[in-house]
């Protein structure tokens, strides 16, 4: 079965702290894609990153970085020097089949306090 | 350019009524997906359209749910005989070609409340 687990339900940090959001996945597919989306209080899911299963290179985009480790089936997301605007629910997702439908984790609610 | 749009943003209805939710994808996107998000959960897949046809409707919970995309652009999700358990945010997403290699872009959702 395909599954995404985000064990952290809620995280609260103070501005400028670094924070890592965990994502563990299960799949039998040899080729798959992993995603992170941000859902601010407005509700719209905002795409952050896509990673394919053959590319284990870590990625950095400004204050955001992602660590993909196939050996542990994890795709963790780190925000460096967090800001209040980072407060949102973050979802990790996995492609569920050849059609591309996504399987989401339950999300991690991040609160960044000033 | 314009993103995915969904109307209405909020819909309140009574148990047993029929509702239609509309999704307007990004122009030129051939693939369209519907998801449902219950409170405190991640979105759950309902149906996927490639062009005008439903390529995968395995996520529709029962036969009260139906969706169409007659011209390969706008899609309508239809729910008959609504139940209180149908209350959720219904999200629409589109992607350029569809399939697992493509990125899906989401609309703001329609919050459905069944009283």
Characterise the protein shown here.
Chain A is mainly beta and 114 residues long. Chain A has no helices and 12 strands. Chain A has strands at 3-5, 10-14, 19-21, 24-26, 33-39, 46-52, 59-61, 64-69, 74-79, 88-95, 102-104, 108-113. In chain A, β7 (59-61) and β8 (64-69) form a beta hairpin. The radius of gyration of chain A is 14 Å and the shape is globular. Chain B has 115 residues and is mainly beta. Helix content of chain B is 0%, strand content 48%. Chain B is built from no helices and 11 strands. Chain B has strands spanning 5-7, 10-13, 19-24, 31-37, 44-50, 53-56, 65-68, 75-79, 88-95, 105-106, 110-114. In chain B, strands 2, 4, 5, 6, 9, 10 and 11 form a 7-stranded mixed sheet that branches. Chain B is globular, with a radius of gyration of 13 Å. Chain A binds chain B through residues 4, 31-33, 35, 37, 42-47, 50, 52, 91, 93, 95-107, and chain B through 31, 33, 35, 40-45, 48, 50, 55-56, 59, 89, 91, 93, 95, 98-109, 111.
